[in-house]
Amino acid sequence: MTRDLLLITRVVLVVLLTGFFIPSQNPFGHYPPYQGNAQGAMPQSLQEKMQRLRVLVERLQQQDVDLQPVGDVMQGFQPLVQEQKFSEAEALVDRAFKIAEELASSAARQTGPPRSLQQKKLLSESAPAGEVVSTPRDTALIAYGARDEDGRQQIFVVRPDGTGKRRLTQEGDQNYLPAWSRDGRKLAFTSNRSGRSQIWVMAADGSNPIQLTTEADNAVPTWSPDGKRLAFASKRTGHSEIWVMNADGSDQTQLTKTDVAIANDGPAWSPDGRKIAFYSNRSGHYAIWLMDPDGSQLTQFTTADGDRYLESNAPAWSPDGSKIAYWSGVAHKSGNIWVMNVDGSNRKQLTDQPVGINADGPAWGPTWSPDGKKILFSSNRPGSQGIGNWIMNADGSDQRVFTTNTFVRARPSWQPSSATQPSVTNGSSSGDEGEGKYGLIALTFKDQAGKLQIFTIRPDGSQKKQLTFEGDNGRPEWSPDGTRIAFATIRDGKGSVGVMAADGSSQKLLTEGRHPSWSRDGKRIAFARVDGQIWVMNVDGSSIRQITRSNSFKYGPSWSPDGKQMVFILLKNPESKTDPQPQIGIMNSDGTNERILTANDRSNVCREPDGRESFLATAHDANAPAWSPVDNRIAMWSGIEKRYGQVWVINSDGMGSVQLTRECSRRNNDDPSWSQDGKKILFSTGRSGVHNELWVIDSDGRNEKRLSNIDAYPFPGRASWQPIH
Fold it and tell me: Which of 346, 474, 553, 635 sits between 20 and 30 A of 125, alpha carbons compared?
């Protein structure tokens, strides 16, 4: 640990462990020091445990032990005490004390120089006198899996010198097997955040996680050298096979096709793109195999080598494509890292650990540094504090621990040293994520104060920009020419409709109201008011007029492409908070000929991973209509109000209704909106079970994938796609 990082960790621990005994001190300034109140002071048992932890921490500090694992856990302590959640705070201290005891036990077992000197050695390497040591570039980060303070598996990055540790993933409890794209701009990884193990991709800084696979369990992604495709392992056929797909998740194709008793796993794409290495037990024992990217020309490259090295797996290509490093051993007993030439010759054992060490090959597999001079691997050998990432020279010399207390699926990935930060331009997306040429997406997130604000992002999730800063703001909608955004806002307790430029400038509140919707000619805005009626005004706020006057409660208007009609939400039972019975209404744009469009019930079904569909519930209710900008289709939500629903489309004559989303979690899929070409639909969903997310789906219900998180309440969670002309 560097001096700065150690100092930060010590400060965090000392403040957390002493701030409550010395109420006058509060160095962080985020929370006032806890002094107890009428509802109760800090329990004596908690104070005693804190004192025990404090004594142990001070002893470990004197031994120069890396205390970051303890500091990470204790980060959540102070807010719990401020909220008087003493039982939860005590559990946190118990966990921190257990980790500290493990650190103390590990420190007692280790021999050799203090950790600070080990770190210096890691930085300087073992070079002959006078030789200049070449180290990987500072920008070439190492991604790996490790436990967070709650024991969940997350993905972190760290510099090759061990500094700058930073967490990238936040969701789910299993995030692992990261793989850098060859340009270093993206990370593919495996996560269970959507319910099962799936392949995801995120930016190098952890932003914009996008789910690429949805069927069965999928894992171990590997990039093609050109960054256009990913190979991965999938169990969608009932057992593990190697598949390949485009980098946006489309065109998923099975490469290996074997019997149910056979497993094919751990693909690794060669640097020249001509071969995919993987491991398979098709020959009786797990061995390394090679094939062409289309699944042809299968060749076995390793065989059993005595009783100790029956199996081989986890292949990793050297950057120049001349060698393959891999694990070999006996599953659940022992194993070591080996290397061989790509023709299978010159096999060499790099590590030599006894039985019981490195026993689970696929998770302990090697990864190369960008210059091919070093190899990272995972191991549970002494000094790992459980499981650690270790580093060695490519010839097996100078083996030493790099990160500790990781996880069985900690297999690291070294960012290519040629990586540069992606350039960002204003305006449209070039379609890097397979979305075609579409503009920015306007959507809502909470700011640091917890207020809802409008942001824009690119379709790939990058270039996030905040547009509003005052009050709560939501339900953005782009003007048809893509130059302005209409939005709803609550400021000083008053709900209004506003308009602003695409960059957030020139904000103007036009009138009291909500749910704005542009006419297709861009000259008028329809909106609703608290009286339950639909109103229309010019885009400058002039000529405000009420167009509906019936007794039904209406809101959420959306114009037809020709401007002659509108759809809207109609509440049949507006006084009920539990069963308002929403339906989709339709009328002429002057308010005449008002009628219900969704007169008939629909049946929501869900699609299981194996393709089977099952009945969920009768969908009595419908709301959140959005009229396609190019035809007579209307996207909407349909389900059971206050419970859950799916995204549907229906024709403007009330016929031809089709269910688009078919996920089975019974969590909401809501607030659809269209791309300008009518080919894609954005919608918000709670399917992760953690928070709302923004997803996109083709208008025929195919190619469903996640784009971003999204916050909404008190507004609908609708996003809007900028038209490009």
Answer: 346
- The 8-class DSSP code of residue 4 comes to H
Count the Cβ atoms, other than its own, within 10 Å of residue 29. 6
Query: Please, which residues have CB within 8 angstroms of residue 327's CB and are 6 or more apart in sequence?
Result: 312, 313, 314, 335, 336, 337, 338, 358, 361, 362, 364, 365, 366, 377
Q: What is the longest distance spanned by two Cα atoms in the chain?
A: 91
Which two three-digit tokens encode residue 321? 């494509």
Give CATH superfamily name and number for 441-721.
TolB, C-terminal domain (2.120.10.30)
Please report the pLDDT score of residue 269 as a whole number: 92
- The answer to whether domain 139-414 and domain 441-721 are alike in fold is yes
> Residue 376 in 3-state DSSP?
strand
Q: Choose among 387, 394, 397: nearest CA to 358.
A: 387
Q: What is the pLDDT of residues 514-573, one digit of tens each?
A: 999 999 999 999 999 999 999 999 999 999 999 999 988 999 999 999 999 999 999 887
Query: For all residues of the chain together, what is the average pLDDT?
Result: 78
Bridge partners (DSSP) listed for residue 588: 565
| The two structure tokens encoding residue 714 | 């008190």
Burial 207-235 (b: 16+ CB within 10 A, else e): ebbbbbbbbbbbbbbbbbbeeebbbbbbb
How far apart are the C-alpha atoms of 78 and 369, rounded to whole Å?
A: 40
Distance from C-alpha of 331 to C-alpha of 165, rounded to nearest angstrom:
31
pTM assigned to the model = 0.45
Q: What confidence tens digit (pLDDT) does each residue in 35-82 have? A: 333 334 678 778 778 877 877 776 776 666 666 667 656 756 766 676
Q: Which CATH architecture has domain 139-414?
A: 6 Propeller (2.120)
pLDDT at 449 over 90: no
How many residues can be counted in the chain?
Answer: 725
Structural domain boundaries in the chain: 3-109, 139-414, 441-721
